[in-house]
Amino acid sequence: MLATLTDWLWTYVLIAALLLVGLRFTLASRFVQVRLFKAMFAQLWVSRAVGTKQGISGFQALLVSVAGRVGGGNIAGVAVAITLGGPGALFWMWLIALLGMATSVFECSLAQLFKRRHGDNDFRGGPAFYMRYGLGWRVMPVVYSLLLLVTLGLGFNAVQAYAITQSVESAFGVSAWQTGAALTTLMAFVIFGGIRRIAVFSEFIVPLMVLGYFGVAMTVLIMNISQVPSAFALIMSSAFGFDEVIGGGIAAAVMQGARRGLFSNEAGLGTAPNVAAVADVAHPMSQGLIQGLSVFIDTIVLCTCTAMIILLSPLYQPGAEGVEGIALTQRALATHIGPIGEPLVSIALVLFATSSIAYNCYLGENSIAYFDISPKITINCFRLAVLALIAWASLQDMTTIFSFSDLTMGLLAVVNLVALWALFPVGMSLLRDFESRGGVSNSTFDHSRLPQQNLDPESWPLVETPAKTE
Hints:
The chain has about 475 residues and is mainly alpha-helical. It has one domain (about 35-50, about 55-405, about 425-440): Amino acid/polyamine transporter I, CATH 1.20.1740. The protein has helices at about 1-30, 30-35, 35-50, 60-70, 70-85, 90-115, 125-135, 140-170, 175-190, 195-225, 230-240, 250-265, 270-275, 285-310, 325-335, 340-370, 375-395, 400-420, 425-435, and strands at about 115, 125. A hairpin with a 5-residue loop joins strand 1 and strand 2 (about 125).
């Protein structure tokens, strides 16, 4: 019953809602994700070069969000999508990511706009905050925070811990309890350091895992360069039902591509805005544009890497039954570079999942902070609960927990998408203000520009800057 309800929610409600919101922001902003693609890199460069004593830098916020978005779905999820929906599923993942980039730009910008100072050198924000301060809602922010706490703070951490221990045991023969003990110790050091230590951890581990996995994929592409055009041709023909090797044809390709794409990049789910709000940037739209890149990195780059590893392998036979999930990716890589391929995929999964646990812990803490009930004591208790859950999950079967997390994650997205639809005019006002001030380093935000909004003057001081002159 749980699986049936989850499938119904994702198939008939969530995908349609995410596409509708993504299309609305894309068309109204005149394809901001394409038009300002270069500006995303410019904003990233500016944020990397400028240090901050408040919150974290925009660059660090990007790395933390990439750490969360990039996970098992990039390795196992893509393999499942190809197995069930055919190679064409990748095309629909690309389309979902393109629309998701626009959604991410605006949800992260709104999180920045309505953030609140938390202590002397930190900020808090996210969907619960823009629901409360942007829309004046009282019940929905509570519902969202509880769903966020249960889904990512607890459920997904258990799933990630289980995936790590099983992968390491399979590839290296290390027992689950030993891996679980080492993982619990490592995560205790990371999460008790708060967002700054999580950011530093992500700043080290994310470039390593992304560039390493990308490098392996590029090696495979170079080794099979003559077959690359035919692989892309297979993706396109399968996407539109011209290659009917998968049961369900185009419908299967669209459904699997959409579901796995949305699950992988999380655009519209409201998770990344919790981290985006912590960044100390000159303009809310600056961090929104930076976060748009995380969707691009996750789906357009890394999911494509996994798909190419599989499709260029002789192990993949269209329509044939065989290995699937992470096993398909591991064995496919082994056909390209030899026996070392399987442990390399396992190492990648460990890095991806470990960074996701750190990210999920912060999101759980952010949901607790919203309630402002003895935050230090409550957050420390939450951290201890997460560590206990990691240790326990290392030895368990996580099927039920994963199904439950999928359901609550779907509900989480629905709540967030309703808020984004209601805040659409505010998001467009932010974009106009950003572009009127020249963009990049010249766009300094002054909250008097949006006097009707309930903004925090400590987060956005009144600093007048002249608008761009023609």
